[in-house]
Design the sequence.
């Protein structure tokens, strides 16, 4: 059975609970409109946070061709909650994973990730915006089926975003601590991602992103891929996305296709606010 230390998750949830009353007092958190702040389908995360008080759901399906006739499919997603004007909470889970290779087909539930994103600075005419995104992995996946390492991981992404004319750019540097078996501590590596967004119509935006991870001190080799996709606004609260990416190094998945949805459910703070006398 995987070992699951609740300390990291407890810290995150405690911060979330402490921040919620503070946010409820801010007038900017009282907007009842449910509007999505899109984060799919890129690896990189923008410095923009979920609107204060808003709960957003995001789910997607994908299929990867790993090479040597091996494939991996999954249905994954989670939610984001705007705790304060510059702070949001993230939860992401691998709800259903399936891998098929020479050893057969294995299916199961994946890991859960919990995190907080904080926007440090908003952008100005010459300066980009900056933020931090901390995440911790709860190893809830099926270890026997290869759906989880059975260890707790941590990541702390440095986020940089900037609008330049019609283009929007997001750059992330993502140091990671990868839990090792038998209490051997942590290995480390670093991820990098740079996404470029270009609106082509009122509703559709194209996106391209090279991304990859170094091998660091982990046994896994480094890899790099490039993604091309699009996001389509059905309504201000509802977005659809899709695309594909291709591995540019030997150890990256050869190809991946994906599609997903982002939906802003409601502003929880306005629902909980007492009615005016």
Sequence:
């Amino acid at each position: 059975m995987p070992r699951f230390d609740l300390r990291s998750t407890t810290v995150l949830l405690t911060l979330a609970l402490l921040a919620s009353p503070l946010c409820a007092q801010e007038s900017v958190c009282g907007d009842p409109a449910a509007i999505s702040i899109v984060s799919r389908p890129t690896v990189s995360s923008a410095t923009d946070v979920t609107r204060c008080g808003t709960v957003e759901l995001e789910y997607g399906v994908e299929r990867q061709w790993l090479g040597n006739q091996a494939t991996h499919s999954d249905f994954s997603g989670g939610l984001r909650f705007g705790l304060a004007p510059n702070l949001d909470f993230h939860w992401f889970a691998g709800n259903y994973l399936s891998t098929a290779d020479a050893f057969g087909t294995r299916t199961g539930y994946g890991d859960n990730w919990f995190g907080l994103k904080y926007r440090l600075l908003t952008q100005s005419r010459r300066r980009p915006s900056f933020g931090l995104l901390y995440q911790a992995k709860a190893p809830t996946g099926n270890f026997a089926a290869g759906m989880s390492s059975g260890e707790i991981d941590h990541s702390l992404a440095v986020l940089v975003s900037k609008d330049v004319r019609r283009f929007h750019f997001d750059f992330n540097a993502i140091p990671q601590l990868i839990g090792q078996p038998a209490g051997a501590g942590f290995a480390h590596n670093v991820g990098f991602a740079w996404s470029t967004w270009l609106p082509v119509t009122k509703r559709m935006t194209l996106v391209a992103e090279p991304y990859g991870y170094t091998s660091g001190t982990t046994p896994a080799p480094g890899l790099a891929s490039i993604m091309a996709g699009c996001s389509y606004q059905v309504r201000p609260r509802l977005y659809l996305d899709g695309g594909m990416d291709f591995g540019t190094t030997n150890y990256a998945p050869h190809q991946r296709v994906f599609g997903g949805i982002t939906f802003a459910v409601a502003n929880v703070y306005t629902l909980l606010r007492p009615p005016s006398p």
Notes: The chain has a mean pLDDT of 88. The chain is about 10% helix and 55% strand. The two ends are 54 Å apart (CA to CA). The first strand starts at residue 54 and ends at 67.
